[in-house]
Amino acid sequence: MKAILTLGMALAAGIDAYSAECVVVELGNPTAVPPQVLLRAKDVAASIFAGIGVELRWSVKGHRKAAGCSMRVEVELETSDGPEDRPGVLAYASVGIEADKRVHVFVDRVNAMVPALDRAALLGHVLAHEITHILEGVARHSDAGVMKARWEARELRELGRRPLRFQLVDQALIHAGLIHAGLAAIE
Ligand SMILES: [Zn+2]
Question: Using CA atoms, how far apart are residues 41 and 125, in angstroms rounded to an integer?
Fold first, then answer.
């Protein structure tokens, strides 16, 4: 019982410490995805980040901006220019100091990857994965979880029922990236 209480307190303290962490995600071309699929995908991505105490605040490009976060990520929902356009890639993010902090998602490839019922869960995970690349600020992958370079067929089938999580290294890099963005916003 004592161990459970201690763990509970540690978790509560951790969540408190990170409660100020949020990211504005600005969606470009949201009508590229059916509204109910996009809504569910946003929920999936938001709950993956909520699991590590980070809040995603959604807005639409060109509309009133969501405020209050030191980090903002732009997400373009688009169609690939055919198989030669970044072959085999579902989405990509431009990372690095000079990068524009923008994610590009090939909606046509997400749709082709899984049956219709699983598209929202896959899109949510793709959003979480690419937003994380921006937050971490480096081009790296983990050997499991949300930041795995390629999810296996078994994982793809179960994304809706068993959402993937962040490995500890990704949690640390995300929080470090947000702290850095917060400090840069103050300067
Ligand atoms: Zn990646």
Answer: 8
1 C-alpha to ligand 1 centroid (Å): 40
With a cut of 50, which residues of the chain have pLDDT below it? 1-3, 5-19
CATH classification (class only), 21-186: alpha beta
Q: Taking the model in full, what pTM does it have?
A: 0.87
Which is nearest to 104 in space by CA: 136, 83, 81, 120? 81
Q: In what order do the strands lie in the sheet with 102-106?
A: 55-60, 22-28, 71-78, 102-106, 91-93
Is residue 160 helix, strand or coil?
Answer: coil
Ligand 1 geometric centre to CA of 134 (Å): 10
Distance CA 108, CA 186 (A): 40
pLDDT of residue 184: 77
pLDDT at 20: 62
Give the distance (Å) from ligand 1 centre to CA of residue 139. Answer: 7
Residue 66: which residues within 8 A CB-CB, separation 6 or more? 24, 26, 57, 58, 59
Distance 184 CA to ligand 1 centre (A): 25
Task: Output the CA 42–ligand 1 centroid distance in Å.
Answer: 18
For residue 6, the model assigns a pLDDT of 45
